[in-house]
Amino acid sequence: MVIIKSVKFKYHRSFDELFRDFSEMIEFCIDKALELNITSYAKLRKAIYEEWKKRWYPKYHTHYCHSACRVATAILKNFRKRKRKGLAYKNKPEVKKEFIKLEEMLFEFKGDKVKIVTSPRKEIIVNLVVAEYQRKFIEAWKRGELDIGEIIIKKDFIIIPFKKIFKPKETAATITIDINEKNVTYSIFDKDGKVIKTVRLDIYKVKRIHDEYSKKRQKIQKKLAKKPIKMRKILKKYSGREKRRVENFLHKVSKIIVREAEKYNAKIIMENLNNLRITINRKRKNIRRRLNRWNFRKLQLFIEYKAKWSRLPVKYSDAEYTSRLCPICGYMLNPNGQRLLKCNICNKIIDRDVLATLNLFKSECGEFRSPRTLPDEVLLIKEDGTGELLKVDEYYLMLMKPP
Ligand SMILES: [Zn+2]
């Protein structure tokens, strides 16, 4: 399995002509594909190659034709998908004006600069702005640990995808992660199954962001009811912003978790989402459910990616093992529909999501020892990715209060 990390590099140079020509090539490819009803890259390339050559060769290397065809088929695929869902309103997809994607043949990465081939005999050297973050990738690339994928040039930055093959390392611990609408709970176990610690990350912020945008959407729909085209445009802009804000936040949450996994050199176990147990509000049930599923899966993927980048193995548990046994005394717990359970035998109050992290361990690794019933730590994660430590008992008092 290949893992890719796309790193942005700023640069100071104008690509106006290349931007214009490349978007014209893509427009040309899209028009042809629509006209000839072609969906596959190979067929499209074959169909347009001669005409492309007449128009753009030898100003541009023939590999620009391949890159343009690839981008055009990807845009069209996405467009057809949106069309099927009723989300695309035009007959033709829009082409980004300041966007170039280059195949490996068309550039050479040199660490702090990129050599871009335009025609068979012409090259452009672009100096990249290298900060500390980018430096790490360049060093690893120089050591031969990373390869480079197809680069993307945008107006303000160049995206360089660094690739490596995933080779899992020996781990000394296990971290099980349970994801919910409002929180992420994880437990770390040592080699003998002893719980080292259990942590709750409160990710209520995700819901806050969605609520904020849902209010904004309602306002816009009301205000622009008589201007549907303008309304659609603005709604699209807002939904893009909403998505980016949530993704940014989830990236930060995943970073916290993977840092912890790295610290304990732990393999990661998460629940396969097909078995997901969710409690959701009745109101707007389907939208909420879809949104939540999407967020859960996104967060899992972010965790998986970051973990694999650090060579930590990741496993999804298929077990439908949702035991309701008290982790302390082993007697059956009574579900009460809340996020807390009570054992009638040993009188312990047990957090359902903490129990889920224990069950994940049990179903994949075996018996656990010294389990927690409530988390050792509760962290409220803010949008900038910092965590505010909450007092555990106060947090549960807050949870039990009616909203
Ligand atoms: Zn008990």
Helix content: 40-55%
User: How many domain units?
Assistant: 2
Low-pLDDT regions: 276-283
Task: State the shape.
Answer: globular
Rg calculated over all Cα atoms: 26 Å
**Could you tell me the number of beta strands?**
17
H/E element sequence: EHHHEEEEHEEEEEEHHEHEEEHEEH
Q: Major sheet: size, sense and barrel closure?
A: 8 strands, antiparallel
Q: Which ions and ligands are bound to the chains?
A: zinc ion
Structure annotation, total helices: 9
Main structural class: alpha+beta
Terminal Cα separation, in Å? 45 Å
Classify the beta-strand content into a percent band: 15-25%
Q: What is the mean predicted local confidence, pLDDT?
A: 90
Structure description:
There is one protein chain. With 403 residues, this protein is α+β, with helices and mostly antiparallel strands. The protein has two domains: 2-165, no CATH class; 173-203 and 260-400. Helices cover 43% and strands 23% of the residues. It is built from nine helices and 17 strands. The protein has helices spanning 16-36, 41-56, 63-84, 132-142, 204-223, 228-263, 285-309, 352-365, 392-400; strands spanning 2-11, 99-102, 107-109, 113-117, 123-129, 147-148, 151-154, 157-165, 173-179, 183-189, 195-202, 266-271, 314-317, 340-342, 349-351, 377-381, 387-390. Strand 14 and strand 15 (349-351) form a beta hairpin. Helix 1 packs across helix 3. The radius of gyration is 26 Å and the shape is globular. Bound molecules: zinc ion (ZN).
